[in-house]
Design goal:
The complex is a heterotrimer of chains A (167), B (64) and C (774). Chain A is built from 8 helices and 3 strands, in the order H-E-E-H-E-H-H-H-H-H-H. Chain A is mainly α. In chain A, helix 3 packs antiparallel against helix 5, helix 3 packs antiparallel against helix 8 and helix 5 packs antiparallel against helix 6. In chain B, 36% of the residues are buried. The mean pLDDT of chain B is 91. By secondary structure, chain C is α/β, with parallel strands linked by helices. Among the domains of chain C are: 243 residues, Rossmann fold, CATH 3.40.50; 198 residues, Dimethylsulfoxide Reductase, domain 2 (3-Layer(aba) Sandwich), CATH 3.40.228.10; 48 residues, no CATH class. In chain C, 31% of the residues lie in helices and 15% in strands. In chain C, strand 19 and strand 20 form a beta hairpin. In chain C, helix 8 runs parallel beside helix 24, helix 9 packs parallel to helix 18 and helix 12 packs parallel to helix 18. Classes of the chains: A mainly alpha (167), B mainly alpha (64), C alpha/beta (774).
């Protein structure tokens, strides 16, 4: 990156690279020794995608980048399958909630007897679990790669830069 | 029975069956036999045959 | 390979998807019309969803406005889960393609038609397929919202057109909530149209007459009386007329809307009670040419195929029929086959919807001059014979070869060429030749026809010309081919089968023929002293012959509206001493009646209807007759008032009698219909399980008969006195004379009848083709 690309445009240190497009995983410098091939990337929960590489300097907010992945998915979604159609929109809100420190959810008066929800605030651990569940639902339940790949940037950002999800 | 109307109907049947050539008279006669009310048959047998086309007339004569 | 459909991973995934669905769904289950009848609710319970962790403050569709424009169902987008089932039902089942998903992503919404359209203004034909497919209350019948969830269901047969759809009549108490097409119905295969699905409100309409009425003469007001008094009055009058004027002064008209059993009883009453053959039916003016033409050529007075057959057709020829309006549920099947690639030929003066509609385009539309059917068909035969396209092997094996040769010589004459006949038919010769070649060589060729064929002065000749074409090309006796009359009313086929014509007993046995008349007369009590056909329908009689009638019993038909030449019918009725109208409503004919006997709807009685594919299906009583008696009970009571001593306790006993008397119905009973769902006649020793397709191994009459049919111009020409050429057509939302549909919300689509006027044709100056829709 430094030899061929000339480092970051700002000259600041590299924080992450995203390989394979907006739905590719974020790779931290500690994994820069990863060989650039399909199997190795797949084993590291990343993907080659279209092969493009985007470099982020240390000013990047990886929590915001996770949010952007959901936002991108929501903007591009065709709407045919539910994990992508609704999941991407819910994902944006959920990342906000996690980064905002969690908020008590407003309750509604009318409830379906079969779908009642206890009216209590969510803990951060619960919301992080929900984020992981959403990623799983989107990855396995989406009809195409848009919804199916959105979890890559989200999960990798959370895994390598959990501090960017706290504020 | 209005004899004019019956003559008209008999001629209409005959005209539709005329293309059957030699069989046309019998076909017309059979049609009258099968589908006409006894009163209609009696009326056309008893009425004037002046207005009947040749096939219809032959069929009515065969109806007797 | 082993496919696992239930694993912990899948269960979690399903729960995850449901959690997303419910995060954008109103939580008003307890007040929702679909409560406990909702797949979304059931699935949420099934996957064990207990918590929607996203909360409910995110983006949603809960504020979307409800579209209430359709008179029968509402569209509430706030409850929509964008599953697209409705869109696919509209595309693949109905074939109208009116629905789509508008927008994309989270904004995806089901939409009828273009942006800005609501359901009513869109191309939606209100067939109800989307409502049935909807897993939530997004598309919901208004009646379910108003009345509540149905508690029980009875499977029965629709009383509208000749398709004969099977429905589940879903009831709450004694109240009908909705009619839902039955998936196992072999005629409709789970589909429906706006009439059968929704337009049943006439059954409880306030216009229904529930008490018998009589009057001495037609200028007096009606007097409500008891059943006993009405029947006594009627029997007395009929007896007096018979004594004074003889049996031939009495007649009856059976109903093509009533059951086979009821129709059979009316003709039996006329033959055994009145003592005459003066019985007729509306089929006299609609499909008697079908009976005559197909009987002459093939040997059976009915269509050759079942509806499923269309899915094997390669070339579909529609002549004088408008299936998308007249037989919509069958049209949907046909359109599905056309979308699969079958070719379509339409012979019709009008550019009917089938000629060009979404994903459907006719290969050939031959817009003939009305009244020239025989000329067009003979010209097609000319092409087939002269270009060597006839199926000689089939003809030699299955038909009379000499008759074929006579016919072939006739149609091969130059005067029958498309070029010569173009002056008469106004069909471009080139198009006609191409259409004939396609029908003869395009694989399985199936002909479907309707009243545009039969309700013409050359109706019978046209039917025979159609049969000739099918035989000449070998298109008879297997799936995908055949000659198929699209019958008008629900039981036109049955009414004909039941001996509703003066010259025929049940099963088309001629009254004077050798077809076991003795057997019949013993059982029905009909005397053999009346071996000659008579004629009851006013339309086939002259005014004077009408005058020789003094009394007529008319069940379930408004002849003053439905029969041609209204003045003539009115004059005939006015001259009578006793007109008995047995109907749901005080119809136009009742203006001339002395006795009005209240009728019952198809929901109020047991019996059978026979549809256009000869399919006999059970009609089941779902509620008690509002007038007190089913129609068969009224006819029986009248017969007994005349001293006939009938004692049927259930229509199944009448069917047993029909089966005993009618060879083609020998194997039919209510018990069998109950067990097997339906049977297609003939059902007898030779065909114990019925006959979905006829003439498979040979024609019923033996050898198929080619009948020479010559074009004879109609006498009804335009001129100074009658400058307009009028023809009739079908309308999807309205039915027959409108007795039923005009008493429903279907009027929103078609509030009044219209004349469509052909735009001027500069070449010929012929600008006066007018279509009246009724």
């Amino acid at each position: 990156m430094n030899a061929i690309g000339g480092g970051t445009a700002s000259g600041r240190p590299v924080k992450a690279v995203q390989v394979g497009g907006p739905l590719g995983a974020y790779i931290p410098p500690s994994q820069f020794d990863l060989p650039f091939d399909y199997d190795a990337y797949a084993a590291a929960d990343a993907l080659i995608g279209h092969g493009g590489i985007v470099v982020f300097d240390d000013s990047a907010d990886m929590g915001a980048m996770a949010r952007f992945a959901f936002q991108f998915c929501a903007a591009e979604s065709c709407g045919k399958c539910t994990p992508c159609r609704i999941g991407s929109t819910r994902g944006v809100k959920l990342v906000d909630r996690i980064r905002g420190g969690g908020k008590p959810r407003p309750t509604r008066s009318k409830r379906c007897p079969r779908c009642t929800t206890p009216a209590r605030p969510r803990s951060r651990a619960e919301d992080l679990q929900l984020l992981e569940d959403l990623c799983e639902t989107m990855q396995l339940g989406s009809l195409c790669a848009l919804g199916g790949f959105t979890p890559y940037p989200v999960r990798s950002a959370l895994k390598h830069w959990p501090e960017d999800f706290e504020r | 029975m209005d004899p004019g109307r019956l003559t008209y109907m008999a001629n209409q049947i005959a005209r539709n069956l005329a293309a059957q050539g030699a069989a046309a008279v019998e076909a017309t006669c059979q049609h009258l036999r099968d589908f006409w009310d006894p009163r209609m048959k009696a009326a056309i047998l008893g009425g004037s045959r002046a207005g009947l086309d040749p096939i219809a007339r032959a069929a009515v004569e065969r109806l007797v | 390979m082993v496919v696992h459909t239930q694993t912990p991973r899948l269960e979690k995934l399903r729960r995850g998807v449901m959690e997303l669905y419910i995060s954008d769904h109103p939580l008003d289950c307890l007040t929702c019309a679909a409560n406990n009848d909702c797949e979304l609710q059931d699935t949420a319970a099934e996957v064990g969803l207990r918590d929607v962790r996203y909360g409910y403050d995110g983006a949603n569709h809960l504020g979307a406005a409800i579209d209430t424009s359709n008179p029968y169902f509402d569209f509430d987008p706030s409850k929509c889960i964008a599953c697209s089932r409705c869109v696919r039902a509209c595309d693949e089942v109905q074939g109208t393609l009116a629905l789509t998903i508008d927008g994309r992503g989270f904004a995806s919404m089901v939409s009828a038609g273009q942006t800005g359209d609501d359901f009513l203004s869109s191309e939606c034909v209100s067939c109800g397929a989307c409502v049935q497919a909807c897993p939530t209350a997004t598309l919901q019948e208004k009646a379910v919202k108003e009345i509540g969830k149905p508690e029980r269901a009875v499977v029965t047969t629709c009383a509208y057109c000749g398709v004969g759809c099977t429905f589940r009549a879903e009831m709450r108490g004694e109240q009908l909530v909705r009619m839902v097409p039955w998936k196992d119905g072999k005629a409709n295969r789970g589909h429906s149209c706006v009439k059968g699905r929704f337009a049943w409100g006439y059954a409880n309409h306030r216009d229904r007459i529930l008490t018998p009425m009589i009057r001495e003469s037609i200028d007096q007001p009606w007097r409500e009386v008891s059943w006993d008094e009405a029947l006594g009055f009627t029997a007395g009058r009929l007896g007096a007329i018979k004594a004074q004027h003889g049996a031939r002064a009495l007649g009856g008209i059976t109903s093509s809307r009533c059951t086979n059993e009821e129709t059979f009883l009316v003709q039996k009453l006329v033959r055994a009670g009145f003592g005459s053959n003066n019985v007729d039916t509306c089929a006299r003016v609609c499909h008697s040419p079908t009976g005559y033409g197909l009987s002459k050529t093939f040997g059976t007075s009915a269509g050759t195929q079942d509806f499923d057959s269309v899915m094997h057709a390669d070339v579909i020829l529609v002549i004088g029929a408008n299936p998308t309006d007249g037989h919509p549920v069958f049209a949907s099947r046909m359109k599905r086959r056309l979308r699969q690639g079958a070719k379509l030929i339409v012979i019709d003066p009008r550019r009917i919807d089938l000629v060009r509609s979404p994903h459907i385009a006719a290969a050939h539309h031959l817009p003939l001059q009305p009244g020239t059917n025989v000329a067009v068909l003979t010209a097609m035969a000319h092409v087939i014979v002269t270009e060597g396209l006839a199926d000689e092997a089939f003809i030699r094996e299955r038909c009379d070869w000499d008759e074929y040769q006579d016919w072939a010589r006739f149609v091969a004459e130059e005067r029958h060429s498309p070029e010569t006949l173009e002056a008469v038919t106004r069909v471009p010769a080139h198009d006609l030749r191409e259409a004939a070649r396609l029908y003869a060589t395009g694989g399985n060729g199936a002909i479907y026809y309707g009243l545009g064929v039969t309700e013409h002065s050359q109706g019978s000749s046209t039917v025979m010309a159609i049969a000739n074409l099918a035989m000449a090309t070998g298109n008879i006796g297997r799936p995908g081919v055949g000659v198929n009359p699209l019958r008008g009313q629900n039981n036109v086929q049955g009414a004909c089968d039941m001996g509703s014509f003066p010259h025929e007993l049940s099963g088309y046995r001629h009254i004077s023929g050798s077809a076991k008349p003795a057997r019949c007369s013993n059982r029905t009590g009909a005397s053999r002293s009346i071996p000659n056909p008579a004629c009851a329908s006013p339309t086939c009689s002259t005014p004077r012959s009408m005058a020789s009638f003094r009394a007529i019993y008319i069940q379930g038909e408004d002849i003053l509206q439905s029969d041609p030449n209204t003045h003539h019918v009115a004059a005939g009725l006015k001259a009578m001493d006793c007109v008995i109208v047995h109907d749901l409503f005080l119809n136009e004919t009742a203006n001339y009646a002395h006795v009005f006997l209240p009728g019952s709807t198809f929901l109020e009685k047991d019996g059978t209807f026979t549809n256009a594919e000869r399919r006999i299906q059970l009609v089941r009583k779902v509620m008690e007759p509002a007038n007190g008696y089913a129609d068969w009970e009224v006819t029986q009571a009248l017969a007994n008032a005349m001293g006939l001593g009938w004692n049927y306790t259930h229509p199944s006993e009448i069917m047993d009698e029909i089966a005993r008397l009618t060879p083609s119905f020998a194997g039919v009973s209510h018990a069998r219909l109950e067990a097997e769902g339906s049977l297609q006649w003939p059902v007898n020793e030779a065909h114990p399980d019925g006959s979905p397709i006829m003439h498979v191994d040979g024609f019923v009459r033996g050898k198929g008969k080619f009948v020479v049919t010559d074009y004879v111009p109609t006498d009804e020409k335009t001129g100074p006195r009658f400058p307009l050429l009028l023809t009739t057509g079908r309308i999807l939302s309205q039915y027959n004379v409108g007795a039923q549909t005009r008493r429903t919300a279907n009027t929103v689509w078609h509030p009044e009848d219209l004349l469509e006027i052909h735009p001027p044709m500069p070449r010929t100056g012929a600008s006066r083709m007018v279509t009246g829709c009724a």
